[in-house]
Amino acid sequence: TLCLALSYGARDELARAVRRMAEGVASGRLRPGQIDEALVCSYLDTAGMPDPDLLIRTAGEMRLSNFMLWQASYTELYFTNVLWPDFRRSHLWEAIDDYARRTRRFGAVREP
């Protein structure tokens, strides 16, 4: 699944999700104890979509730039100096090849 987020900001997404949950608590439709990771996910713009496995950051930037801050917690990051308008299929395959060589641990610490 390829996801392109246009005119998107994670801080805005999280603020809107929290606001809607708070409204649910205020109206009695939701109890604070019901708020867990799954519920938060259900209020995000990406509800129903899996978290990304790979995030490709173009233009040589080494930051997420307010992009999918919640969803990217266990995402593998790939940085390239190629600018987005110049990003081609060959660059995508380079990123996928790099990703395929990785061992995903989902936050677990590697055994010594």
Quick rundown:
This protein has three helices and two strands. It is mainly α and 112 residues long. The protein is globular, with a radius of gyration of 17 Å.
Give an overview in words.
- With 112 residues, the protein is mainly alpha-helical.
- It is 33% helix and 7% strand.
- It is built from 3 helices and 2 strands, in the order H-H-E-E-H.
- A two-stranded parallel sheet has the order 1-2.
- The longest helix has 18 residues, at 10-27.
- It starts with 9 loop residues before the first helix and ends in a 12-residue tail after the last helix.
- The relative contact order is 0.14.
Keywords:
2 strands; mainly alpha; two-stranded parallel sheet; 7% strand; 33% helix; 112 residues; 3 helices
Number of strands: 2
**Number of helices, counting only DSSP H or I runs of 4 residues or more:** 3
Helix coverage percent: 25-40%
Whole-angstrom Rg: 17 Å
**Shape field:** globular
Strand content: 5-15%
Topology pattern, helix = H, strand = E: HHEEH
| Termini Cα gap | 35 Å
Multimeric organization: single chain
Class by helix and strand content? mainly alpha
Outline the biggest β-sheet: 2 strands, parallel
Contiguous runs where pLDDT drops below 50 for at least 5 residues: none
- Spatial ordering of strands, largest sheet: 1-2
Mean pLDDT: 93
